[in-house]
């Protein structure tokens, strides 16, 4: 089914294939057929025992269903679309257990009578106010399907070399033709299958732990090569007469591991130095092809496109089913709309950097030494420190609206970032240390909470809620003000953009500066982990961070607050 999705021939066929993919993720009808195998009891056990007995039986049922063929072979005969043959799809037990998790861990009274509450995926409609226990992870189910659909439509969109040639950095017609997706030839079809398989599995690691899901997903794929290789090879040998190799599977694992790297580069959470392992891995894997130089660029583009698909479906209504991908026309409109955004410009810029790093690394064809590649990536990171922080600031406030204040990016923000760094540290030393920070895990959510809290306080100031804490970040209109500029809404809006940007950027940089200089610096890549810190970031602590005097706030006070939320 994944082979045919990027070139289905019609919207109707695309929908038909997507329905088979939906069933693979969650075959609810198959589970309903097994409801007789759910436990039943004449004497009802204790609640905790009931939950355990049900979960134990569900694991048996899940294993039984996943042993059946959940991958369906799609056959096109002219205008007809038929589904024949079925194959075991690896790792589906993990997905099914993930979707079996309930909103509430209730001790069911009689599992065979209440089977819908045990097996229901979606929240029921028009249920007369009765609470029904549907899947806790229904949002991810929708997201997984959205990514697969978007990835297939993006591949079709870039099947024409002209589409890739519209990139600002691609002036070479040959490169645009290399990147274009083709639907003929064994190697090209295998390329398409592997990318869509990576889209299908891209968030597999969420079944282990959410905030490390990329790494966990890669470990799952790489850690089960024998069984998964066997079942996937049955699919590829039947359709392409080509066996999926261990190296192919490990590369799919790499795609999972890095499926959000370009996305986090575009928000500033990741630095270019993280591209080192990605580029070296792609170079090594591409050596299996006779034209390894062309294939390394294709595979790098595959990773980039997987990132784009994930981002495209996450901008709006991430947890809802996005049926607009069912229509080729609507999908192309959605892609064209995304291409007009500042985030797209960042993604294209970062792909350009990655291609340049790859080109330099390929000069040493047989070398296993990545020191020069690391230095090149570090040089890029050092030159982009200001831009990286600006991206983080912009991404943190994206979508936040305050009356009379437009929080979109502006040309002055780079100068604001530089000025705030200069007020705290030596710019060269700050830049050197920050360039070594490869990843700031989930920092966007952390800084966004601060931005949202700041926006709340600023809006209260604008609304003259005098009983609320003041940030001093904005000027507001005064009815009796003698100065005309204080009642000039256009002037105030312009000034308030500058003030808000200056103060919020100062807050972000103050926190980063504290983390960079809190201990003896070690000359190696270090990551910032924000997940646990985010849970400790109470509104009261945010208020203390925000309401300190002036844009160049007291460093000791900030340090004292941050010590309570960051784990050493």
Number of helices: 27
Note the gap between the termini.
48 Å
Indicate the percent of residues in helices.
55-70%
Shape: globular
Alpha-beta classification: mainly alpha
- Poorly predicted sequence stretches spanning 5 or more consecutive residues: 478-488, 549-553
The biggest beta sheet reads: 2 strands, antiparallel
Question: Could you tell me the strand content as a percent range?
Answer: under 5%
Task: Produce the secondary structure layout.
Blueprint: H1 2-5, H2 11-25, H3 28-33, H4 47-66, E1 71-77, E2 80-87, H5 92-100, H6 115-119, H7 138-157, H8 161-165, H9 173-179, H10 186-201, H11 213-223, H12 225-240, H13 246-257, H14 261-267, H15 275-286, H16 292-312, H17 328-338, H18 342-361, H19 371-383, H20 385-397, H21 413-424, H22 427-435, E3 437-441, H23 443-462, H24 489-516, E4 526-529, H25 531-536, H26 539-546, H27 555-562
Parallel strand pairs: 3-4
Antiparallel strand pairs: 1-2
């Amino acid at each position: 089914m994944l082979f045919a999705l990027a070139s289905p021939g019609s919207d109707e066929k695309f929908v038909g294939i997507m329905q088979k993919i939906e069933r693979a993720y969650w075959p609810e009808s198959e589970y309903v057929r097994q409801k007789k195998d759910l436990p039943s009891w004449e004497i009802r056990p204790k609640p905790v025992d009931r939950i355990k007995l049900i979960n134990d039986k569900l694991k048996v049922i899940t294993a039984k269903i996943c042993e059946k063929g959940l991958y369906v072979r799609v056959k096109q005969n002219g205008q007809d679309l038929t589904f024949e043959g079925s194959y075991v799809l690896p790792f589906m037990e993990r997905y099914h257990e993930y979707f079996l998790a309930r909103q509430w861990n209730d001790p069911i009274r009689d599992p065979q009578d209440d089977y819908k509450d045990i097996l229901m995926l979606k929240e029921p409609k028009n249920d007369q106010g009765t609470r029904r226990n549907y899947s806790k992870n229904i949002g991810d189910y929708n997201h997984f399907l959205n990514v697969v659909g978007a990835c297939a439509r993006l591949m079709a969109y870039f099947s024409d070399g002209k589409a890739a040639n519209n990139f600002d950095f691609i002036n070479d017609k040959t490169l645009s033709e290399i990147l274009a997706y083709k639907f003929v030839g064994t190697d090209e079809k295998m390329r398409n299958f592997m990318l869509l398989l990576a889209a299908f599995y891209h968030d597999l690691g969420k079944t282990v732990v959410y905030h490390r899901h990329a790494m966990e997903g890669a470990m799952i794929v790489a850690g089960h090569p024998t069984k998964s290789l066997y079942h996937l090879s049955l699919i590829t040998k039947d359709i392409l007469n080509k066996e999926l190799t261990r190296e192919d599977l490990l590369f799919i694992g790499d795609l999972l591991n890095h499926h959000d790297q370009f996305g986090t580069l575009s928000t500033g959470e990741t630095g270019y130095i993280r591209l080192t392992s990605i580029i070296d891995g792609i170079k090594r894997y591409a050596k299996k092809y006779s034209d390894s130089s062309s294939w390394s660029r294709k595979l790098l583009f595959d990773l980039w496109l997987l990132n784009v698909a994930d981002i495209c479906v996450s901008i709006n209504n991430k947890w809802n089913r996005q049926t607009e991908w069912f229509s080729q026309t609507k999908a192309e409109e959605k892609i064209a709309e995304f291409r007009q955004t500042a985030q797209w410009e960042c993604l294209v810029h970062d792909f350009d950097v990655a291609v340049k790093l790859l080109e330099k690394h390929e000069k040493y064809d047989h070398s296993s030494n990545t020191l020069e590649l690391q230095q090149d990536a570090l040089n890029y990171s050092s030159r982009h420190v200001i831009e990286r922080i600006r991206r983080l600031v912009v991404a943190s406030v994206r979508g936040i609206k305050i009356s009379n204040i437009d929080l979109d990016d502006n040309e002055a923000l780079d100068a604001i970032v530089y000025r705030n760094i200069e007020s705290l540290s030596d710019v060269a030393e700050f830049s050197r240390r920050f360039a070594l920070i490869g990843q700031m895990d989930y920092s966007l959510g952390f800084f966004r909470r601060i931005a949202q809290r700041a926006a709340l306080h600023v809006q209260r100031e604008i609304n003259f809620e005098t009983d609320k804490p003041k940030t001093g970040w904005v000027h507001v209109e005064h009815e009796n003000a003698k100065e005309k500029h204080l009642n000039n809404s256009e002037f105030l809006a312009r000034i308030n953009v500058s003030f808000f940007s200056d103060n919020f950027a100062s807050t972000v940089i103050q926190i980063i500066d504290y983390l960079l200089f809190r201990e003896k610096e070690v000359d190696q890549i270090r990551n910032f982990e924000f997940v646990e810190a985010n849970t400790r970031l109470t509104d009261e602590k945010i208020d203390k961070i925000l309401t300190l005097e002036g844009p160049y706030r007291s460093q000791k006070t900030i340090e004292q607050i941050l010590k309570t939320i960051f784990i050493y």
